[in-house]
Amino acid sequence: MQLDIFADSRDVMLRNEVLDALHRRRPGDAREAWQRLAGDFPDDSSLPGLATLIEVLEDGVATPFTGHATLAAACARLNDEVEPVARRLLGDVAGRAWMVPWWRVVAQRAAGVPFRTDVGDHHAAPVWLRAGDWDAARNAVERIVSWRRIPAPLAWMAEARYRADGLEPVWPLLTELAWLSPGRFAGLSQRLADASLDKLLRKFDANFEGSGQTADLAWFPAWVLTDKPAVAPLLREAQPSRQTAPERATRLLLQILSLERQGNQHELVERRKALRDLHAGLYAAYMRTR
């Protein structure tokens, strides 16, 4: 039986017509091409996913969200339904790029939704991060009262600044986040996927004498000073937090490093004793480098 190349490739041609219209963001053309594909190949496995993407193109709603629930529903649809389909049908990189305008629209519609700690992730700032607009994310965070004392917006600001400026200027914010919320710090570190930060975290996990739980990460800034004292000027910029033991240990180590340069042995001995009393394992990590 001879293969009819043109007949057997018609489904590919029709499917590509839909994809091309989607890439060009032409909802009318995409819908017409989809209907031709559905008419000739009603069992084509790509039809439901293509329909989902066409519906997104056809949805011209731009009214502001009335509250956290509607924002959450819109984000869930894009994240759980639309983006996976876009990445599968358009390709991973192209699919992510295709999603950017829709994340931007959702962020714009969320501008009036206030921040609430009980629904902390339902805010415009993390949506701007999804859209890749670091300045807009920073502006959204700055409108939150006392954002630097709240884990969620502090993490958003740290991510926005990292994406724009790299790791070095973000160390003070990362330090404060580790003190306030080790869990948030862990999640942010995974998202950033920074090679130098990941290297330090792996070394911390292997060598720090803690409980082996996520809560240990509150001690990470202090431990970093024992392994990489060159970051001390950056960690000094961290604002005072809740005066927890990990924060006090970080402040002590910053004092110790300064006293070592000054050669003030009397005060150095006192600070070292205070560090040992605060956390013997951290003190041991410090002394191993001396």
Describe this structure in words.
- The chain is mainly α and 290 residues long.
- It folds into 3 domains: 1-51, no CATH class; 65-145, no CATH class; 162-290, no CATH class.
- The chain has 17 helices and no strands.
- The chain has helices at residues 5-8, 10-23, 27-40, 47-58, 68-90, 92-109, 124-131, 134-142, 151-165, 171-180, 182-192, 195-207, 220-227, 232-235, 245-262, 265-278, 280-287.
- Helix 7 (124-131) packs antiparallel against helix 8 (134-142) and helix 8 (134-142) packs antiparallel against helix 9.
- The longest helix has 23 residues, at 68-90.
- It is elongated and about 85 Å long.
- Mean pLDDT is 94; it is low at 1-7.
Summarize the structure.
The chain is mostly helical and 290 residues long. The protein has 17 helices and no strands. The termini are far apart.
Structural descriptors:
mainly alpha; disordered N terminus; 290 residues; elongated; single chain
